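To whoever is on call:

I kicked off a structure prediction for a single chain this morning and the downstream step that reads the tokens threw a length-mismatch warning. I double-checked the sequence; it's 278 residues and nothing unusual in it as far as I can see. Pasting both halves so you can look.
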Amino acid sequence: MSVRVNPARAGRWLLRLVLLAGAVLSLIPFLWMAIASTHSTGDLFHSPPPLLPGGELLRNLARLQDTVGFGRVLLNSLGIAVVHTVLSSLISAMCGWGLAKYRFRGRGLLLGAILATMMIPLQVLLVPLFQMMASLGWVNTYQAVIIPFLANAFGILLMRQGFLDFPDELLESARIDGSGELRTFYRIVLPCVRPQLGALVIFTFMTQWNSFIWPLLMLNTEDKYTVPVALNTLTGLTHVDYSGLMLGSLLATLPLMLVFLLFQRQFVAGLLGGALKG
């Protein structure tokens, strides 16, 4: 008795196995980071390395708090990232709306200039930005970390693309009913572009949360450090606290995972927006 195999079904199962294997491989570094955070630094260099959780988690956590004040820097990073994400997303949405729906002289030139800014590497901007912050007296302040990069070219272009498909007839109806421009924007327009806005929130939050070079230049005192800057202090010339780095990195990923879980539907829909349109 011969068994017939459906090629399409077999292909789907093969694809699932490949994706499952890829998911497992991508989780291995996080699993090792979690295991390493429960061991001492000396245990990590044993041969073979530990493959099961150890009993040093609380001790590593206490040392991390005593060394860098991890609870404080975690709150610093969270406050900076939240404020920057809210302001940057709002600015990007308003700029994208203006470029998508308003006709004015020089709009194409302005759009080209915004695109050109994406080609400028961050390293070129560090010196003039630092001089600007120093002239304002903003060195070692949170506003120096938050404000300079609020206008995000990627965010503006992403929101503009979402606003291009918004029907002009709906805008005219709102204006005829007496709705002002700001009210129309916040009450009617923004709810319709939640996928793009959710994707922008995740991207902006992750970028600001992981930012290292600019906070390192701006923040001089330990009580104002962000998580990446504080973790960098665990790396010395003669000693590296690997278990502390692993634990700090593990704890630093939790807010990113939470933000992604909250906005994952909007993130996927925002990235695929327009892909199925004819």
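Update from on-call: the warning came from a stale cache, not from the record. Cleared it. Sanity check on the structure: Residues 170 and 176 are 10 Å apart (CA to CA).
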